[in-house]
Amino acid sequence: MPFDQNILRARFCYALSEMYKTEVPLYGDLVDLVYEADTTALKAQKSYCKDTCNQPIDPDTILPSRNRVERHGAIRLGIPHELSTIRRMFGIMGMYPVGYYDLSIAGFPMHATAFRPRKREALDKNPFRVFTTLLRMELLTKRTRQLAVRALGQRRIFTERLVELLDLVEERGLLSEEECEEFIKEGLETFRWHSQATVTLEEYQILKNEHPLIADIVSFPNCHINHLTPRTIDIDLVQRLMQDQGMPAKERIEGPPQRKCPILLRQTSFKALEETVYFRDASSGVYVKGSHTARFGEVEQRGYALTRQGRQLYDEILQRVNIESAEAKPSAAQYEEILQRRFLEFPDDLDQLHSQELAYFCYRLGSSSVTNGQQKPKTSTKLSELLKKDILEYEPIIYEDFLPLSAGGIFNSNLGNASQTKQLIQDAGSNLKEFQRALGESVKDEFSLYEQMQRESLEICGKLLEIEIEYE
Ligand code: OOG
Ligand code: NI
Hints:
alpha/beta, binds nickel (II) ion
């Protein structure tokens, strides 16, 4: 088999999911529940039911495969060298850093990027992505920083063989089938759960008191995957089913409200489990039993990618929702009402999203594109005219990234309340420059990637029609 990054990514994602199901069985239940929800949602969409009403519905055969395989994961790293090595590792699977997420706004001493495929074809083959955070040492108090530097300096989160394979592929540009298998096997070790902490219980407490996430990052011999996330077509149904089946579901779905035209990303999760962990006893060397709460399962429903203007409007509305709900202290249902009402301001109509340039679109030839000689469009034609005449049509581009505020909500629901240093962290601001230095590369701006997809689709249409399309 020739070396194919898309296939390697798909195989790795599958292996990771299988591993996580054995580590966190409730995650396996969640994947089953998503299957059930998607089946029910498809039945409700009558169009699929025309001729096949009496036949069983299988989302795996009806939905595009990228819907069914799609999941994201999240990991938390401690030091720059870990981040630059993970960049090399994900790069082999065609996953590159996109976007910069400043988590200090939510009081977390971390910043992040998402490693993901950048091109449409690669996303269609397998869209697996990993949200990857890096601890910001400069935002820790002195004592905690000393502890963190020591513990993180002693660990090796990549196996020796994995590092050899990274060198090899960078030199030769490919891996043999045997080496691909090794790469998957060795790569999984970086994300595997270890119940033996590398710190003592006292040290763990110090770290945890400063921020539970610091303890999660620093106390273990590697960077266990902290959640995986399948994609669904009906997250409201998933939320109801989770509650009905007694899963420890979050109180509400994060992100925008339910809409006719879904935007960005909506997410929910089951809360992190309390797990047994063994801590080193400094004097006797034996291990003592304790616990740690970090790993969970999440579900996402993806909507349309918004332009900068669209995102700005989204942020403004969300800000108003936050202010109103901070005052009203609403229940989950009341919050939903506030969200719905405030979001009425965001157009929920495809034509408006397009004409107001709030979302990104891909263009393709429409029903009137095959014309006889007389109707052939002029050599240079306005896009709006081509759309009006059905020579071109458009389809929204799906959002492939994350929502830090939503992430903040997920973090918070899993970690109890924050520490005294929260305010200091919030005041610190972002540090993209430092993040990129640690990464060893710059991160790609997500908006420019969507813009590029939109532009390229238009260029293809222009070539097919043999005209110049004026994008006004
Ligand atoms: C990352 C949370 C970000 C999401 O879905 O927004 C994320 C973390 O918990 O480390 O995965
Ligand atoms: Ni997530």
